[in-house]
Design a protein that fits this description.
Keywords: ATP-binding, Membrane, Nucleotide-binding, Transmembrane, Transmembrane helix, Transport. The chain is of the alpha+beta class and 1146 residues long. It is 48% helix and 9% strand. It is built from 41 helices and 22 strands.
Length: 1146
């Protein structure tokens, strides 16, 4: 028997078979004889053959017995690990963009143990020859290089058109033909012997003849033939007639091999186990474990594919709605708590100050009455001895009668009883008259001490003693800390000013006052006087060269109010803009001296107040908040809080704003205070900064007579304190007209018709023939004459063009060349008011007339003007002027916190608008979450395109309000010296709240309706970076564009950026995607999802990322790029804030 076995083995030896084949029929007969002998000598042969599975017999060298082992041999397990490592390395080499850590991926894909049941069963099934059927490196490489052609693989050495055995069919494998094979060889080994079905837990690709382990998350049972369809279930492949179904045949992307994945609603701990998800759990496609449902969801059914998170979204929605409702309901109440407390403290302090000052006034009058009675007794006694009255007693009586007759009634009475006409002399100021003639009238009155608790101690604050030779006490009291102390001090000063009056100070007196550090600082240090002298001041438009102001000469003096009047188009506003340095679109000629020295008025802008014609105030702030904001960023930084309160309260009282101090100013959409009150707030914004030069453009337009008088009385007080005030005025009443010190009448063409004291204007015009009729307002009559509406009855040939020349001739000013002919004609005429015999027309005709330009010349001229304007714009933008104001305003950080506080208040007032934004985001998140197709086949990449469009569009439109709604206010504040970087950063800081909150609101709906595989935290991180990016882009649109174009761009850009990313990209479009912020946001979303697809999903992940050209390791890079986009957009927006509309910021 042993001999027969040896012979049989020799016959089966590959080295001897060719020799026996040469014997032809003899070899066949001998082969059959040996088989018969073997059968007769060993009855167990057939029984052993019956235990071998379907297919050709095993090699006779392998004992065909059923094995029963607990775990794989170490050598075989090492071979399997080698094969899995080669598979992982091959995938990493071909798809490096989707695998970051090969060892970690191998454990996630092939993390089975040596004692895994299905490995042992396969070993037993193959009778210990499992290692010979595993794919070598060359076969693994061949499979993954041709993965896209898995259904129709290219030919190889084993499976081709001439050699296609059973082992080449799907689900079948064979052993190697050679006993010594190099596993790492790049040549596919011969594998045609003994084909067998693929083991459960392995897959055998079609056309490859070897086995590879199925990854975790796959389901790889042995296939069964469906007799009705002829398909091998569950893999849906067919076999040739007469053959049997094998095992699994493919592992590829889910779209190509979905039947190899563990079914949804089930989980597969190993590739051969399919277990139903138990109650309270859910299992996605390709799951290895069952995931526990959230406590807020109901997962009572068995075999759930995903949990229903709608209830969580509803709970979050309800919570957010509750919070927003509380904010909307209580925001005003929370903001009013401090306001009510301050209002109560203010009322108490005001009442105490009024009672205290009224008591002082009664005490002073009682004292004066006692003096008067004593004087009367002295007079009665003196009459016994003498009937002559001394001059001293007369002046004393005159002074003491002031309280009963009033200073206005006795001001014109001399000591001898006659009227003093010098009181109405415009050359004598009221302050000089009061100081020189009646020194005691405005001298400080001795008062009893006022006890105010300072720093917890009761002490004497101040006692005004107007004794000669003594230094006056400091105007600024010691520092007050508590709110009640500050209000007590402020209202005490206001009440004393109201009762005892404020003496008018001349500029010389202002300069001689004490100028110690602020604590004893007074007017001379706080408001340095500004005197403006202008000579032959003319102004031309830079583009057209049109002359709109002509040869204006004069002076604006501190302590006086000058009214600028004239017909429409005469250049009134232009004149004051030129003096204030705001005429940036024009070229100025002539000389302007500041305090007798040449220089730029912009160097003094910290102490210059400019009130525009339009009422530019913050509508969502109260009257007091508007004034306080202007005071905080424009008053000196070292000014004590008690004096700041005094300044603000004084302006509120002077302008009659006390009853509406806590009222919102209002906007177009939301009604607030009246138009007249808004105008007074507009004026108060500049008065509250304690200016030295105050220029107002039509402050009384639209006001009734009472409101106009309040404004002018406040201006009168400012002038009495040494402020230089210039006002553009339109047809005031005679009473208001007389409240000004000087007046300037401008004729058409920007020529000066009169500039001088109010008291001399009627005499001047009367001297040239313009007599004011009875019952006619003089300023109205002069305005009508300048307009040419009124013609004097005794001068029928009255010509308004002569008025400027007459003024120049009277003052001896240089006559400009274009008016020399008119001046000569007027000097030759007997009546200067007659028409100038067309000399005006002659001077502009004939040889002096300019030739008309041709088309090309006009184009060249326009181009030249354009570049000149841009050169001037860049030059002035980069040039920084020296600050000569002497005022130290708050620095960057102080202004940042001042503006931040204001913006927070504004946002709280606009909480309803914010609520609307949040509701829209909630609805958008729910709708987009339902519409998004989070398909596992594309890792949910297509489900984020709607998010990129919807979220960017809503965020950008809402972010436009940050800057577009306050452009006018910003231009005014920038012109007054606000720090633009602090302004921008404060606005952006407040918007960071929305950058963090809006993603939560949106994701609270989107995440729970779309249910992606990525975590909520990952989605939140991406959405925050995305919102930060698009918010910065919206800033650029808001600053550069008007609201309507900005909104259009905010709709167009998100759609365009997303379409470029979503479309099929080749060539230029592919390069363009790298400039789109939407690419990096979508890439981050997809990568966050892709990292959750492990195990059997690796090839699907690599396939999708390869198509989209994304890298799994670029998650942080995408977030960084989005943040850098946002920062870059903010830098560009800040530059736009500096450079755009630069002329309006001066």
């Amino acid at each position: 028997m042993g001999v027969v076995v040896v012979l049989l083995l020799l016959l089966y030896s590959r080295s001897l078979i060719p020799c026996f084949r040469k014997l032809g029929r003899l070899w066949v007969v001998l082969h059959l004889l040996l088989l018969v002998l073997l059968a007769s000598s060993s009855p167990s042969f057939f029984s052993a053959a019956q235990s071998i599975p379907d297919g050709p017999a095993f090699p006779p060298t392998v004992a065909p017995t059923n094995l029963s082992i607990g775990e794989l041999p170490d050598a075989l397990y090492a071979e399997i690990l080698r094969a899995t490592a080669q598979i992982t390395n091959e995938v990493q080499q071909n798809f490096s963009y989707c695998i970051t850590d090969g060892e970690k991926e191998r454990n996630e894909v092939f993390g089975f143990q040596q004692n895994s049941t299905y490995l042992v069963n396969c070993y037993n099934f193959l009778a210990g020859v499992l290692g010979d059927r595993l794919c070598m490196y060359s076969e693994i490489k061949f499979y993954f290089e041709n993965l896209a052609q898995a259904a129709t693989p290219p030919p190889n050495a084993n499976c081709n058109s001439t050699s296609w055995s059973l082992s080449c069919e799907a689900g079948w494998a064979a052993s190697v033909a050679s006993l010594s094979v190099n596993y790492d060889s790049l040549i596919i080994p011969s594998r045609l012997l003994y084909p067998k079905k693929c083991c459960a837990g392995f897959f055998c690709p079609r056309g490859l003849s070897c086995m590879m382990p199925c990854p975790l998350g796959a389901s790889c049972p042995v296939a069964t033939l469906n007799s009705r369809t002829g398909i091998c279930d569950p893999y849906d492949y067919q076999v040739t007639p007469g053959n049997q179904c094998g095992g699994a045949d493919i592992w590829s992307a889910v779209s190509e091999s979905v039947n190899t994945f563990c079914p949804a609603g089930m989980y597969c701990p190993t590739p051969v186990e399919n277990l139903n998800c138990s109650s309270g759990h859910f299992c996605r496609l390709g799951s290895t474990i069952q995931e526990k449902c959230s406590h807020l969801t109901s997962c009572s059914k068995v075999g759930l594919q995903k949990q229903n998170l709608t209830s969580i979204g509803g709970l979050i929605l309800g919570g957010l709605a509750t919070i927003l409702f509380i904010l909307v309901t209580c925001s005003d109440w929370l903001m009013d708590i401090k306001k009510r407390r301050k209002s109560k403290a203010r009322q108490i302090a005001q009442q105490q100050a009024r009672e205290r000052v009224s008591g002082l006034e009664r005490w002073r009058k009682a004292k004066e009455m006692a003096k008067l009675q004593a004087t009367n007794i002295s007079r009665t006694l003196s009459k016994t001895f003498s009937h002559r009255r001394t001059p001293r007693s007369q002046s004393e009586e005159l002074q003491l009668s002031t309280d009963f007759m009033g200073s206005d009634a006795i001001a014109e009475i001399r000591e001898d009883g006659s009227r003093d006409q010098s009181f109405n002399d415009p050359n004598v100021s009221a302050g000089d008259f009061a100081q020189n003639t009646y020194k005691d009238l405005y001298s400080p009155v001795a008062m009893p001490p006022i006890d105010i608790d300072v720093e917890g101690k009761s002490g004497e604050v101040s006692t005004l003693e107007g004794q000669k030779g003594k230094r006056p006490p400091p105007l600024v009291k010691p520092l007050r800390k508590t709110e009640s102390q500050i209000f007590s001090y402020a209202y005490g000063e206001i009440e004393k000013e109201r009762v005892f009056g404020v003496s008018r100070m001349s500029p010389s007196r202002i300069n001689t006052l004490d100028t110690e550090a602020y604590g004893g600082q007074v007017m001379g240090k706080l408001r340095p006087p500004i005197e403006l002298n202008f000579d032959n001041l003319s102004l031309f438009l830079k583009g057209s060269g049109k002359k709109i102001l002509s040869n204006v000469t004069g002076m604006l003096k501190p302590g006086r109010i000058m009214a600028v009047m004239g017909p429409s188009g005469a250049g009134k506003t232009t004149f004051l803009n030129a003096l204030a340095g705001k005429a940036t679109q024009s070229r100025t000629t002539g000389t302007v001296l500041i305090n007798g020295k040449p220089g730029s008025i912009q160097s003094y802008k910290q102490i210059i107040g400019f009130v525009p014609q339009d009422d530019i105030v913050h509508g969502n702030l109260t009257v007091e908040e508007n004034l306080w904001f202007s005071a905080n960023y424009r008053l000196p930084v070292n000014m004590p809080q008690c004096d700041r309160v005094l300044v603000v309260e004084r302006i509120i009282a002077a302008l009659g704003l006390g009853p509406i101090r806590d009222s919102l100013v209002g906007t177009v959409e939301k009604r607030g205070i009246s138009g007249g009150q808004r105008k007074r707030v507009n004026v108060g914004l500049e008065m509250v900064m304690e200016p030295s030069l105050l220029i107002l453009d039509e402050p009384t337009s639209g006001l009734d007579s009472t409101s106009s008088r309040l404004v002018l009385q406040a201006l009168r007080r400012e002038a009495d304190m040494g402020v230089n005030v210039g006002v553009v005025l339109h047809q005031p009443s005679y009473g208001l007209f007389k409240m000004f010190d000087d007046v300037m009448f401008l004729a058409k063409g920007g020529f000066t018709a009169y500039l001088g004291p109010i008291s001399e204007v009627e005499d001047y015009f009367r001297g040239i023939g313009l007599v004011v009729p009875d019952r006619i307002n003089p300023p109205d009559h002069f305005m009508d004459a300048l307009e040419g509406i009124v013609t004097p009855s005794n001068y029928p040939k009255f010509d308004t063009k002569n008025l400027p020349v007459l003024w120049m001739l009277k003052k001896g000013y240089t006559i400009p060349p274009d008016l020399e002919a008119v001046a000569i004609a007027l000097q030759q005429q007997s009546n200067p008011m007659d028409e100038s015999k067309d000399h005006m027309n002659e001077s502009t005709s004939g040889s002096t007339r300019k030739k008309e330009k041709g088309f090309h010349q006009e184009v060249l001229h326009d181009v030249h003007v354009f570049f000149r304007l841009w050169y001037f714009f860049i030059k002035t933008s980069l040039h920084k002027l020296e600050d000569k104001s002497g005022r130290n305003p708050p620095g960057f950080l102080a202004q940042y916190f001042i503006i931040l506080k204001r913006v927070v208040k504004q946002r709280l007032r606009d909480i309803r608008v914010q609520l609307q934004d949040y509701i829209i985001l909630l609805l958008a998140g729910a709708c987009v979450g339902i519409l998004s197709n989070m398909n596992d086949s594309n890792l949910g990449s297509s489900g984020y395109y709607y998010t990129l469009i919807a979220l960017a569009l809503l965020i950008m439109i809402a972010s436009l309000r940050t800057f577009s709604q306050e452009k006018l206010q910003f231009w005014r504040e920038s012109a007054s010296g606000i720090n633009r970087v602090a302004y921008f950063l404060a606005k952006d800081t407040v918007d960071l709240f929305n950058v963090l909150v809006k993603p939560v609101i949106y994701l609270s709906m989107f995440f729970y309706f779309s249910n992606p595989r990525s975590s909520f935290l990952e989605n939140f991180e991406i959405t925050v970076a995305f919102v930060y990016c698009v918010t910065g882009i919206a800033y650029i649109f808001a600053i550069l564009l008007q609201p309507a174009p900005a909104q259009l761009w905010s709709v167009f850009l998100p759609i365009l950026a997303t379409i470029i990313v979503a479309s099929r990209r080749t060539g230029f479009l592919l390069r363009l995607t790298y400039l789109s912020y939407a690419r990096y946001a979508n890439e981050a979303f997809v990568i966050a999802n892709a990292r959750r697809y492990i195990g059997v999903w690796v090839i699907t992940r690599c396939s999708v990322l390869g198509q989209l050209q994304y890298k799994l390791s670029d998650f942080l890079r995408c977030l960084l790029i989005l943040v850098l986009y946002g920062m870059g957009a903010r830098i560009i927006a800040l530059l736009c804030l500096f450079l755009s509309n630069r002329n309006r910021q001066k």
